[in-house]
Please model this.
Amino acid sequence: MLSPAQCRAARALIAWSKRDLSAASEIAKATIAGFEAGKLSPDEATLQPIKRALQDAGVLFIPENGGGAGVRLAKSTSASIDTDETRTVQYEEYLKNDAPPGAGG
Model:
């Protein structure tokens, strides 16, 4: 299920125009505009490509769970820091102890 408000909010999150969504989903811009304005009620076969295009762009749809349906951005994995500690790389120059005796650490 996709609501007009979710569609508008999803586009805003990823800074897409109706034209951008139309190109990505291959659904007419007029259909998207009518749906978002509440003037059209497209069938599920029309809404699925719209929702899929938004999901592919990084939008997560939050179902109605007592707090209302919504949208949010997916957590980006492209800028994450590699924390795999099973592979440790040590460089020889960092293995030498160049501190004076008794320096600790």
User: Anything to note?
Assistant: DSSP finds five helices and two strands in the chain. Residues 4-73 form a domain with the 434 Repressor (Amino-terminal Domain) fold (CATH 1.10.260.40). The two ends are 59 Å apart (CA to CA). The first strand starts at residue 59 and ends at 62.
